[in-house]
Amino acid sequence: MKIPEIKICGLTTMKDVRLVLKYKAEYAGVVMFCEKSRRNNTMENAWKLAASLGSQIQKVAVCESPTREQVQMIEHMGYDILQVHGELGRDVLSATSLPVFRAYNVGGSDEVQPERSDKIIAYVLDGAVAGSGEKFEWNDMKSFDRDGKKLVLAGGLTADNVREGIRVMAPDIVDVSSYVERKSGEGKDEDKIRKFVERVRENG
Ligand SMILES: O=C(O)c1ccccc1NCC(=O)[C@H](O)[C@H](O)COP(=O)(O)O
């Protein structure tokens, strides 16, 4: 079984930054311009998180139906990758020089009709509601055409189910947020990150 890279999403605190760096996740996701998310960051915090994450990890700006102005700000803040849920207009695509993770909420309102663009480097298959901790039916998406791009498996992953997700979907990257959160919902939980990372990277 190929061992995928790891993306830990929904960072909001400096402690979260220390944890993703300590456990050497390859990608860190920061939600912004998304008022309805409890993990939404102000621009000021999104900027601070990017600066603290540094260059050892790929910094992913996660947003929903962003505007041209927003994607330009994201680039200016030092993010490496733009992850887009919801709508992705051609004008927005052309306004960024960042590589794009195009996200689809499977089973939700999104039609999973992958757009074709050289700027898109990965497709994210996520649960029906982003960041809800709910998975989608993996078997229904086994034959998803990734068009030579990376596949990111997201939505409801835990230390208990991630091996099965890797076996079924053979993703290049696994993406987790809710499971690795503290019970209070404030920031990430070190024990859960350690468990998740160990499960993904164990042999066999
Ligand atoms: O996390 C959010 O609140 C969020 C809000 C708006 C757009 C995207 C959002 N999350 C993006 C993600 O990358 C995935 O949904 C997430 O990592 C998987 O979440 P979970 O099921 O909680 O593990």
TrEMBL record:
Gene3D superfamilies the record matches: Aldolase class I
Alphabetically ordered keywords of this record: Amino-acid biosynthesis, Aromatic amino acid biosynthesis, Isomerase, Tryptophan biosynthesis
One MF term in the entry's GO annotations: isomerase activity
The reaction(s) this protein catalyses: N-(5-phospho-beta-D-ribosyl)anthranilate = 1-(2-carboxyphenylamino)-1-deoxy-D-ribulose 5-phosphate
EC number(s) recorded for this UniProt protein: 5.3.1.24
Domain N-(5'phosphoribosyl) anthranilate isomerase (PRAI): 6-198
Pathway(s) this gene product operates in, as recorded in its UniProt entry: Amino-acid biosynthesis; L-tryptophan biosynthesis; L-tryptophan from chorismate: step 3/5
The keyword Nucleotidyltransferase belongs to this UniProt entry's keyword annotation: no
Family in the record: Belongs to the TrpF family.
Protein name (Swiss-Prot/TrEMBL): N-(5'-phosphoribosyl)anthranilate isomerase
Lineage: Bacteria, Bacillati, Bacillota, Clostridia, Eubacteriales
